[in-house]
C-alpha cells in the first residue's frame, strides 16, 4: 500500500527522528523566495516556483534525498565530490548524522530559481 499525503506536515510525521532536519530544510528552501509554494509530488515534499517544479526532498533511514533536477546536480557535482556526498543524475544524499549543508542547499535552490526565471514560457 502506498502512502498518500495531503501536505508536507503529514509527510514529516513519518520521520520523527529527522523531523527537525526536514523542517530546517523546508525553511531554508522557503527563505530563498517568497513565491515558493509547497505541494506533494512523486509522494515527496515538493516546492514549485512560477508553477514549475523547483526542488523535492525525501526522508530515508540513513540520508535525506534532495532533488534539484539534473542541471542542479551537474552544476554542483564538484561540491558533492568535495564533501563526499553520494549523488546521481537527479539527486544528492545528505547523511542524517551530519549537519545539513545549508549554504549548499541555498545555492542549489537559487540555481533552480535562476534556471526557471531564464526559461521563456
From TrEMBL:
Highest taxon of source: Bacteria
Domain YdhG-like: start-end pairs: 19-112
Record-linked Pfam families: DUF1801
Gene3D superfamilies reported for this sequence: 3.90.1150.200
Protein's name in the database: Uncharacterized protein YdhG (YjbR/CyaY superfamily)
Organism from which the protein derives: Chryseobacterium geocarposphaerae
Amino acid at each position: 500500500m502506498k502512502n498518500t499525503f495531503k501536505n508536507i506536515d503529514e509527510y514529516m510525521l513519518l520521520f520523527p527522528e529527522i523531523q527537525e532536519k526536514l523542517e530546517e530544510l523546508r525553511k531554508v528552501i522557503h527563505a530563498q523566495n517568497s513565491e515558493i509554494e509547497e505541494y506533494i509530488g512523486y509522494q515527496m515534499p515538493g516546492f514549485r516556483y512560477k508553477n514549475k517544479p523547483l526542488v523535492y526532498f525525501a526522508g530515508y533511514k540513513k540520508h535525506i534525498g534532495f532533488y534539484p533536477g539534473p542541471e542542479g546536480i551537474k552544476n554542483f557535482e564538484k561540491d558533492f565530490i568535495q564533501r563526499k556526498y553520494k549523488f546521481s543524475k537527479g539527486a544528492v544524499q545528505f547523511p542524517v548524522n551530519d549537519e545539513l549543508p545549508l549554504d549548499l542547499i541555498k545555492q542549489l535552490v537559487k540555481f533552480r530559481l535562476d534556471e526557471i526565471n531564464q526559461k521563456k514560457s
